[in-house]
Amino acid sequence: CPKNRQTLFFSATFEDRIRNLSKRYMNNPIKISAIKHVDSTKLEQTYYDNLSNKKLSLLIHLLKGENVGQSMIFCNTRRTTDFVVKNLKYNGIKSSSIHGGLTQNKRTGVLQSFEDKKILALVCTDVAARGLHIDNVSHVYNYEIPNDTKDYVHRIGRTARAGEEGKAINLLCNTDYDNFSRMTRDYPDFEIKREQTPTLSYVKAVKVDNEFQGKRS
């Protein structure tokens, strides 16, 4: 590159190692950052407190029963993502997954299918919480609460965008309590309403490794 040039440096986050890179390669850089913002007037946040073996049944009940458009369902690991998407398909819900184990071509194809409304539920890890352009998401489900509270903000920011209304629904069990408590401490302004668990029907469930087929409460 020529010495006389303009350099623009973009990053989704601004950690120390990123700051050091900017100091090393830029002259008198100016930092411009966006404020993390959730419009509480457009976004409704709720949670259910449940047993872990009822999460899948509750998710399927909500996806089939509520007035849900296109939704994103966030999990913490690839394995859980694969388990959820396989069981949604098994129970008749058009869905697909995005996580770090997929090729770029595969991710692009899944996003195009979601945009074309061939897929109604996009099950994903936090790789889809930021950096991807995804429109028309009416509901965000946290099947698991993230370890990093910032990831929670990125997740729920996928709905209620551009003046549209949206809903973020958290499915809690005992393994989520610590992460959920940490998030509510970090963001005390969030109003998250508790919902009563509805009467759930048994759903068909399969494990990712295909070793088991049966029913799950």
Description:
By secondary structure, the chain is α/β, with parallel strands linked by helices. The C terminus is likely disordered. The radius of gyration is 19 Å and the shape is globular. Strands 3-4-2-5-6-1-7 form a 7-stranded parallel beta sheet, sandwiched between helices. A two-stranded antiparallel ribbon has the order 8-9. β3, α4 and β4 form a beta-alpha-beta unit. It starts with 15 loop residues before the first helix and ends with a strand.
What's the arrangement of secondary structure elements?
Layout: H1 16-25, E1 43-49, H2 55-65, E2 70-74, H3 78-90, E3 95-98, H4 104-115, E4 121-124, E5 137-142, H5 149-156, E6 166-172, H6 177-186, E7 192-194, E8 203-206, E9 213-216
Parallel strand pairs: 1-6, 1-7, 2-4, 2-5, 3-4, 5-6
Antiparallel strand pairs: 8-9
The unreliable regions are 210-217
Instruction: Determine the number of helices (DSSP H or I, runs of at least 4 residues).
Output: 6
Q: What is the chain-wise order of helices and strands?
A: HEHEHEHEEHEHEEE
The total count of strands amounts to: 9
Strand order of the largest sheet: 3-4-2-5-6-1-7
Q: Tell me the Rg in angstroms.
A: 19 Å
Ends distance = 61 Å
What fraction of the residues are assigned to beta strands by DSSP? 15-25%
| Major β-sheet annotation | 7 strands, parallel
Structural class: alpha/beta
Shape: globular
